[in-house]
Amino acid sequence: MDRDKLFGLLDQFEIETPSWGYADTGTRFGKFLQPAAASTIGQKLQDAGVVNKFTGCCPTVAVHVLWDFSMGVDATETAKLARQNGVRIGSVNPTLFQDQIYKYGSVCSPDERAAQHAQRHVLDSIHIAKAVGSNLLSLWFADGTNYPGQDDITLRKHRMHGALRHWHDALPPGMTMLVEYKPFEPAFYHTDVADWGMAYVFAKDAGPQAKVLVDTGHHLQGANIEHIVAFLLDEDMLGGFHFNDRKYADDDLTLGSIDPHALFRIFHEIHNAREIHERDVSRIAYMIDQSHNLKPKVEAMIQSVVTAQELFAKAALVDRKKLRDAQARTNVVDAEECLKEAFATDVRPLLAEWRKRKGLELDPLAAYRASGYEARVGREREAERADRGTTANASYA
Ligand code: RM4
Ligand code: MN
Ligand code: MN
User: Fold this and answer.
1) Which of 110, 184, 276, 373 sits most deeply, having the most CB atoms within 10 A of its CB?
2) How far apart are the CA of 141 and the centre of ligand 2, in A?
3) Closest Cα to residue 164, out of 193, 135, 130, 196?
C-alpha cells in the first residue's frame, strides 16, 4: 500500500480515551490505589491531555456523568477545562446503575420511580452533551434479572423500547445515540440488552440517530466479533467500539494483550467495507473502555493506543486486490495468506515515520516515561488527597 495513503488513514484514526481509565478502580474484592491516579475530572482531563500529547491521536475523552459531573457544576466549565488540557469532551455516558433506586434495573425496572429517575438522568445527560459540544450519547444498561421468573422479560423489553424512543426524540440533530450490549453482569440470569441483535432492534426502532456500540469484551466465548462488525457495517448500524481485551468475560484487559489477531480481523472488515463495499466508515467512534488495576494508568493507555494503531495499520496493509482475486478463484490458501502477510508485517517503523511527519516523539511510551510526569503528579496528587483528608474514591469500573 502507498505510504501516503496509509498515513492518510492513520490521520483519520482517532481513539477516545475514557475518564474512568485514569482513576483508581478495582474489583469487587477491593482496590489497589496508585499515587498518580486521578481523583477529579480536572486530573482525568490532564492525564488524557498527556496521552493525546504523546500519541497525537486521542483528542477526545469519554465521560461518565455521575463520576465526572457534580450537581451545580456548569458543564461548559468542564468543556473549558478539557480545552485547556488540549482535548475535548467526547461521548457522554449516563450512569444508569449504582444508585439504590436501580436495584431492579433502570428503565426496565418494574419500579416506576426507578424508570422515571433514569428517564430524567438521560435527558440531563443530553443537555450536558449539548453544553460540552459532544455529539455522542453512549448508553449502557446494567438492567437484567438474577432469577428465573423474577420479572416479565417481555414487559421489560417494552419498557426499554419506550425509553429509547423517548430519548431519541430528545436528541438534537447531529447527535448519535449509541446502544451498547453485554451478555451478563451485573445481572446473572438475563440481561435486557444482551447481544448485538437486541441492540440492533432497539436502535433501529428508536430512530435513525441510534446505532449499535460494540464493546469487544462483551461477548460470550467464541463469538465471531468481526462477523458482527461486517454485518452491522453493511446495515449502516455500526456506531462505534469500546476497545479492550478479555480472556474470560468482561475483563477490561489491555487491548491486544490476549488476542491481537482478533482486533486485526475487526479492522480488516472495516477496511474491507470502506475499500471494497464503498461504505462510509468515517463516523465510527473508536473508544477505549478499560480500567487498569495493576498497570500505571497513563502508561497503559498509551500502550493501548499504540497497539490499536499498529493493528489498524497492519489490517490496512492487506492486499485487497490479491485477496479478491484469490476469493474469486476460491483459492482458500492464497486468500488466507493475504491476511497472514499483513499481520506479520512489522509496522512500527511506518508508525515512527508517521509520527515524525506530525512532529511527534517517535516512541510515545518511552518519551512519556522520560518526561517524569507519573512521579511528579504522584507526589502532587498524594499531597492534595492528604490536604483534603480524603482517601482516593472511585468506581469499580
Ligand atoms: C460496563 C460497560 C460500559 C461502561 C461501564 C463502566 O461494563 O462496558 O460501557 O460504561 O462498564
Ligand atoms: Mn463498554
Ligand atoms: Mn464492560
Assistant:
1) 373
2) 10
3) 193
* Atom 10 in ligand 1: residue holding the nearest Cα: 140
Residue identifier of the C-alpha nearest atom 6 of ligand 1: 397
Atom number of ligand 1 nearest to Cα 95: 10
Q: Is 249 near ligand 1, meaning CB less than 6 Å away?
A: no
Whole-angstrom distance, CA of residue 86 vs CA of residue 88: 7
Q: What is the 3-state secondary structure (H, E, C) of 7-51?
A: HHHHHHCCEEEEHHHCECCEECCEECCCCCCECCHHHHHHHHHHH
- Please tell me the pTM assigned to this model: 0.97
Ligand 2 ion: residues within 5 Å (CB): 215, 242, 289
The one-digit pLDDT tens for each residue of the chain (397 residues) are 899 999 999 999 999 999 999 999 888 898 999 999 999 999 999 999 999 999 999 999 999 999 999 888 899 999 999 999 999 999 999 999 999 999 999 999 999 999 999 999 999 999 999 999 999 999 999 999 999 999 999 999 999 999 999 999 999 999 999 999 999 999 999 999 999 999 999 999 999 999 999 999 999 999 999 999 999 999 999 999 999 999 999 999 999 999 999 999 999 999 999 999 999 999 999 999 998 999 999 999 999 999 999 999 999 999 999 999 999 999 999 999 999 999 999 999 999 999 999 999 999 999 999 999 999 999 999 999 999 886 555 455 5
Q: How far is the CA of 20 from the centre of ligand 3 (A)?
A: 12
CA of 140 to the centre of ligand 1 (A): 6
Alpha carbon distance 367, 385 (integer Å): 28
Q: Give the ligand whose atoms come closest to the C-alpha of residue 289.
A: 2
- Looking at all shown ligands, the one closest to residue 218's CA atom is 3
Measured in angstroms, how far is the CA atom of residue 387 from the centroid of ligand 3? 34
180 lines ligand 1 (CB under 6 A): yes
